[in-house]
Amino acid sequence: MSFLLKIQPVFAAVVLVALVGCANDPAPTEQLKLTEQAVAQATAVGATDEEPDLVTAQTRLTQARADMADKSYKDARMQAEQAELDARLAEARVLTQKSEAQVAQVNTRLERLRKQLGAGQ
User: Fold this and answer.
1) Which CATH class is domain 26-93?
2) What is the share, in percent, of the chain residues with pLDDT greater than 90?
3) DSSP per position, 61-88
């Protein structure tokens, strides 16, 4: 029993240190860099302010920066992660649209060739 009485304060101290450690979220500087790169990449492939996902990404990135300034690191990390995903979605949609346009162009050329081959017979 005396062993348990000696262990309880140590256990309580360990739990307290663990809880305090969890409460202190580190600044998400790396996540912000990743998010900024994702927004830049989406813009580089052709996403514009007309793409709603890019606008959402930019808004969330702005909020993440504000949360960083307020030292609300958990909120900043969440906003930055969501902004990164929005930017990647905007990039994917733009690339999909470009691919679909290229497929349509190839199909048009194929149809033209088929007509030419059919007319020649």
Assistant:
1) mainly alpha
2) 75
3) HHHHHHHHHTT-HHHHHHHHHHHHHHHH
